[in-house]
Amino acid sequence: MPQPWHAMAMAINTTLLFTPEAMAKVDARVIASGIPGPELMRAAGASVVACLLSSWPNVARAVVLCGPGNNGGDGHIAASLLAAFGVPVLRHGYAPRSGTDAAAASATCEHAILPLGDYRPLAGDVVIDALFGAGLDRAVGAEVAAVIGRIAEAGTPVLAIDLPSGLSGRTGRPTGPVISAERTVTFAGLKPGHVLMPGRELCGVTTLADIGMPARLVASDDPLWINGPHLYGPTLPRREAADHKYSRGHLAVMSGPLISGGAARLSAMAGLRIGAGLVTLGTPPGAVMAQSAHLTAIMQHRVGSSADLAAWLSDPRLSALVLGPGFGDLEKARDYAKVLANARRYLVLDADGLTAFAGRTGELGDMFAGETRLVITPHEGEFRRLFPAIAEDETLSKVDRARQAAALLNAVVVYKGADTVIAASDGRAAINADAPPWLATAGSGDVLSGVIGGLLAQSMPIFEAACAGVALHGAAASQAGPGMTAEDLAGLVRPPAV
């Protein structure tokens, strides 16, 4: 799936994400370096005009809704340029604060600023939302809310500057009534609100424009990125002529009982496809024959108890394990997790393995203290059962929640969804934003667990393995296309050529 944004200048860093607070620091650094604020504002306004004229070349009237701050200043510049190009222009909104860059920008436009509440959409209008952008993290007022309602009712297309007004740039969630834009233009760096849901959809297609900020100054001390090869590419397993099956890693997937063995098979097949040299199902005695009917390249090992598992782990070549898909027995899952923790193996915990620790996260965190060797892959419901206090805190973004959970467990958390967040206990985090919607099908999470487990078995670092697993899982789904089943997905998983 293509990413829902593009850059007008490829020199921009499209991988780093900036909270509104971090971007405010960038703005201050750039201006302190000697680049005047009005110059940046002119470049921003010109970028908005370029986007509008390329997207709506037959615009009948451009209606600029101007706020009192710098976002409004960008809108004033856009209004002035559009008028110079012969486009009919209206300005509605609020007068800028005197003595500011926005006030100077407003003076370049001859059109009066009409009251915001007077705007009534007409056919052929395109609205430029220059009200608040990322500068507002509270609900808009009643007058703005009424205008938002009229725009939505009329179906008037909107081009938002920076972010649609009413959308939090930090959380990606509406703070109240919110503009739904067809397109958004932002500058220098993307914000979490552009990629976290539902912000990604409310922004429409986002253009990241270069307005002349020096790349050396567009930096942040917050380790937050869009997921991609820049994070995991250098650590992907390399294929060597002298490789053999054990040098490429041995992954074990713990199977559930007779009735629910399919989930473990999906994980095992994905681990094999992603490049693990051997994959073995750890199968309870009563399910061995049933699993044998479905397996060829995947092996089996009888595991009926914690003692059996501990004995199996005496083989040091068994490097990573997946526990939870279709496992069923929650008490046994807890016992197995303790054995794996004591054996200092890498573990991907999913599905029933997560349910087993609902209300017991402290116990799980204590098991995996020290070196980070645990990956958990909760969907929204599982996350809420595991971390109810974190999940119920509406002030936290999805990134904040994943980071807190990762720190609590000393784990890498893969917080699944259309905007999957991967977070490490050291604060690193990535948002995956290009997976296709047809991944929402039974068994796709089992495949993801196997992909991550297979990469861990091949000695990838744990955060990078989780990031790569999420990305490669999404790439396989994109190749499969709509109508995909989990079996299709597992069959299409492939390691990238490196």
Supply the key terms.
18 strands, eight-stranded parallel sheet, 38% helix, elongated, 498 residues, 20 helices, ten-stranded mixed sheet, alpha/beta, single chain
Describe this protein's structure.
With 498 residues, the chain is α/β, with parallel strands linked by helices. The chain is built from 20 helices and 18 strands. The protein has helices spanning 20-32, 37-55, 70-84, 101-106, 142-154, 192-195, 199-203, 229-232, 262-273, 288-292, 306-312, 330-342, 352-355, 361-367, 380-386, 388-391, 398-409, 444-457, 462-480, 486-492, and strands spanning 5-7, 61-66, 89-93, 113-115, 125-130, 158-161, 183-187, 205-209, 224-226, 250-254, 278-283, 299-302, 318-323, 346-349, 374-376, 412-415, 421-423, 429-431. The strands form two sheets. Strands 9-18-17-16-15-14-13-10-11-12 form a ten-stranded mixed sheet, sandwiched between helices. The protein has an eight-stranded parallel sheet with strand order 1-8-7-6-5-2-3-4. Strand 11 (278-283), helix 10 and strand 12 form a beta-alpha-beta unit. Helix 19 packs across helix 20. The longest helix is centred in the N-terminal third of the chain and has 19 residues, at 37-55. It is elongated. The relative contact order is 0.11. The mean pLDDT is 94.
